[in-house]
Design a protein that fits this description.
Blueprint: H1 6-10, E1 17-20, H2 26-37, E2 41-46, H3 49-60, E3 66-70, H4 76-88, E4 95-98, H5 114-136, E5 144-148, H6 161-181, E6 187-193, H7 201-204, H8 216-227, E7 237-241, E8 244-248
Helix pairs in contact: 2-8, 4-5, 5-6
């Protein structure tokens, strides 16, 4: 096992096992890095195998155990293969970060191709369901699920109907899941970050003013702050806007 620094030993996350989807870039990568600095052992997934390997090499330098497994969250078979490897670790999954998600170019409903609609819904909503359902068998009391949803889960952005629909649906799923898991002692947190400087804007709005956005690292730190809270602390929603991070019970 990797040696732990004194600061890691003081962290309640040290030695825990966390799974992060979409961990190759953006908010997912920032959260994976932050968890590793806390001493968390990691399972990281993504569709880009080369990027995943680079991420694993980077995180292992922080002296934590890292399992990198390519996974398409839209595919039941791919998710099943991932959790075969998770079960082989013989360690409960303490944290699930459902971060994988995509957007689509600005199009009105009249102009949005159906395959584009289906790809977004499949990734952002169906993938969320598949990953969560598979993870539940590996989680025990005291675990935490964080679903990265975006402020689009509560707001409407014209020209983003599939993205809006997927995130609104994901919030409904998250709220339902929370009530189902509350008696089992598993926390479920909805993460609703505002505009964050990540690659998704190349699809949503290529000319977006990035300098006015939050950093992925600032979002990750707020997630870590929530995860460090005692297991009996109720946090249902994290809404993050520039210079503002709020936890709602």
């Amino acid at each position: 096992m990797p040696k732990r620094s004194a600061s890691r030993l003081q962290s309640p996350l040290s030695g825990r096992l966390a799974l992060v989807t979409g961990a190759n870039r953006g908010i997912g990568l920032a959260i994976a890095r932050a968890l590793a600095r806390e001493g968390c052992n990691l399972i990281i997934t993504g569709r880009d195998e080369r990027a995943l390997a680079r991420t694993r090499a980077e995180l292992e330098k922080l002296r934590v155990d890292v399992l990198a497994q390519p996974c398409d969250v839209r595919s039941p078979e791919s998710v099943g293969d991932l959790f075969e490897r998770v079960r082989a670790l013989h360690q409960p999954l303490d944290i699930l970060i459902n971060n994988a998600g995509i957007a689509h170019p600005n199009r009105t409903v009249a102009d949005l191709p159906y395959p584009t609609w289906m790809e977004v819904i499949d990734t952002n909503l169906n993938g969320l369901f598949l990953m969560t359902q598979a993870a539940l068998a590996a989680m025990k009391r005291g675990g935490t699920i964080v679903n990265n949803l975006s402020v689009a889960a509560e707001r409407i952005f014209v020209g983003s109907s599939a993205y809006n629909a997927s995130k609104h649906g994901a919030l409904g799923f998250t709220d339902t899941l929370r009530e189902e898991l509350r008696p089992k002692g598993i926390r479920v947190i909805a993460l609703l970050p505002g505009a964050t400087d990540t690659e998704i804007w190349q699809t949503l709005w290529p000319k977006a003013p990035r300098r006015k956005m939050m950093t992925a690292e600032s979002v990750a730190q707020i997630v870590i702050d929530a995860l460090r809270l005692p297991a009996n602390t109720t946090v249902e929603k994290i809404i993050i806007r520039p210079s503002l991070g709020t936890l709602e019970n």
